[in-house]
Amino acid sequence: MSTGLLDVTKEIKIVHDNVRDLFDRFKAATDLKEKAILANTLVREMAIHGDAEEVSVYNDYSALGLGDTAAHNKEEHAEIKRLVHSADTTSVDKPEYTSVIERAVTAFLTHAKEEEDDQHPIMRDRLSPEDNDKLARAFLKARKMVPTRPHPAAPQTGGLAQKAAGMQAHVHDKVVESFTGRDFADLRFTHPEI
Q1: 152 CB contacts (<8 Å, ≥6 apart)?
Q2: Per-residue pLDDT tens for 26-72?
Q3: In this structure, are residues 148 and 47 in contact, taking their beta carbons and an 8 Å threshold?
Q4: At 11, is the secondary structure helix, strand, or coil?
């Protein structure tokens, strides 16, 4: 259990770094089953990350002078969710499987770089250590409650409708993952327990 102050930008970057690492492992994998496990994990991490940011971090962007950026990010998330959904629903034995995964991950990582280079420095500068910690904890808590698979048609407002739909989808996704026997790869980078 983490008792020190957390930095929301570091917690977000942990996910970005995991997606980078998983994608490198996916590209290097030659075994179809290993590729499927890595793709399942990529889909899960990208889906969780997008919704967790929307219901926690982006809600505070206006107070940081980043209101227009939050709207831009949500638009990019909508496109990423569509691509991740396509990756989630494409069978591993299809010839286009690798390219579908690559398109989704490339869009995610392009967005991640924009956040890291342009938005995170502003957040670190404008958030007090206590507010940064509070936002980091909200993000980590949201990661445990949002869907684990992409739902591009679900609300993306960051508000109550998205939170309610997300909690319901989270349960649904866990059932689907159990019944379909999805396996997941270990993550190289981890968040603190809160």
Answers
A1: 78, 81, 82, 85
A2: 999 999 999 999 999 999 999 999 989 988 999 889 899 998 998 89
A3: yes
A4: helix
CA dihedral 137, 141, 143, 148 (to 10 degrees): 180
Other CB atoms closer than 10 Å to residue 176's CB: what's the count? 13
d(CA 139, CA 144): 9
Number of H helices, E strands in the chain: 7, 0
pTM of the model: 0.86
Q: Distance between CA 9 and CA 124 in Å, rounded?
A: 7
**What CA–CA distance (Å, rounded) separates 194 from 80?**
28
Buried b (16+ CB within 10 A) or exposed e, 63-97: ebebeebbeebbebbeebbebbbbbbebeeeeeeb
State how far the Cα of 67 lies from the Cα of 58, in Å rounded to an integer: 8
Q: Are 162 and 155 in contact (CB under 8 A)?
A: yes
The residue ranges of DSSP E strands in the chain, in sequence order, are none
